[in-house]
């Protein structure tokens, strides 16, 4: 059963062999997937939460991620540069994107020529958010898709190589993009993060 | 003011970065690390402060397991015909064995001549076996009917293709779209596709939800030879243009609905028509297909242009039984047909290295031990109005 109070990844002596054994067992019995669920559920849930800012929806999405992961476990193959974690978070990312598409219906009226700047919240608006979580979600919403995805995967604990695998980018491209992504996000959160990192 | 999704794209990103590089991104490595640390610390604090965002509830794992078991149960009930037929066959064998009179055992079966029932049974068994292998894993429960089953028996995936076809798969010769055509598709994809379609409203609502499409489009039958050849040629062109064409050429292959989704998902949150036109022109001027070709999840292109260290081209899967005609004759108010079809990785000599079927499942693999990507499957729409094929989405 998932341990609610311990959010740090479980220490393992040999993560690759450990996960390999769990996956082999889970292919026969889905219940055997539990250790991997325990290991990754908090990070997957948090990623989903930041995407929707709602606990019930985040749980729905997280559940879907793990259901798909267990169902598709036979398709998981070990590759150089890739890990089970990057495979799992690739599924998580797709689930979040699918959810985004489901919840957004769009239309473009004809004949409109005016242009208004993006309503993405600036520092002043961010500063009135009731909680830091709301500010974080709002600030993430100002980033480009690629930047946001990289930050989300970073916050989920993935390495540069793993992110490169998930996004099908080169490691150098990820490094370059994440530098800008962090700078942009920090700029959006200036009211919350002082130059020296102190909390407002 | 127009409500667009807050889903900025990389082309726009590039423009922003160019602007940003003139101002505030001259940070050194130390500043980069500082920014990362501060953002991570802030995110951690935010999650800790907000109890509900910290971790999922205790019962989520039970829910996951229940869902997995329920879906497995549902899938098993859909293919229940398989174990029933197996039991029947076993019962038939045991019944005939009991009918052999005691003391008259004629010896082992290989010492006897072939009997008519045995021959008929053997042929039936082989046919049933082939039917099982061919259709049960596809999960569409024999919807194809006996005609298509025989077609499947006769046709098998060829091992090679004409090298001239491979050469052709390295050139994109599609007429490009201009910015006005793209904008027209964005504003009203149905009218763009089919001038005969009359919409009641000037504005046209469209759902780009992937799940909805999976729901409405069910596999129906194997496409006709003509349908299949058109779809397979289109797949080859699609891959060629994705790899070697310009953005304007590649977008010309997308269904207007897909193109609309691509554009909308890359525009800033609020954008007027003039700005949208300018941005579309900017993207078209960039030429290369990457990086805003298709939203994530719409198609999985191979990570590398090589399989087993051999350069490849990507063609439509040349095996007709591996394709499916889908059940939705009308899609998004545009009449036509939908075909799902896989792809093949082919080397320069025309040897087929790896092939996927209409669902994107691997059906042949001549490069064992290579765990690179599976050739993608594509959902295509053929318009009755324009008599052209369009890409809807990938596997």
Explain what this protein looks like in three dimensions.
- With about 200 residues, chain A is mainly α.
- Chain A is about 60% helix and about 0% strand.
- Chain A has nine helices and no strands.
- Chain A has helices spanning about 15-30, 35-50, 55-70, 85-100, 125, 130-140, 145-155, 160-165, 170-190.
- In chain A, helix 4 (about 85-100) packs across helix 8, helix 7 (about 145-155) crosses helix 9 (about 170-190) and helix 8 crosses helix 9 (about 170-190).
- The radius of gyration of chain A is 19 Å and the shape is globular.
- With about 400 residues, chain B is α+β, with helices and mostly antiparallel strands.
- Chain B is about 45% helix and about 15% strand.
- Chain B is built from 14 helices and eleven strands.
- Chain B has helices spanning about 10-20, 30-50, 60-80, 80-100, 115-135, 145-155, 165-170, 180-185, 190-195, 210-215, 225-245, 245-250, 255-265, 275-285, and strands spanning about 220, 305, 310-315, 325, 330, 335-340, 345, 350-355, 360-365, 380-385, 390-395.
- In chain B, the strands form two sheets. In chain B, strands 1, 4, 5, 6, 10 and 11 form a six-stranded antiparallel sheet that branches. A five-stranded antiparallel sheet of chain B has the order 2-3-7-8-9.
- Chain B is globular.
- In chain B, about 35% of the residues are buried.
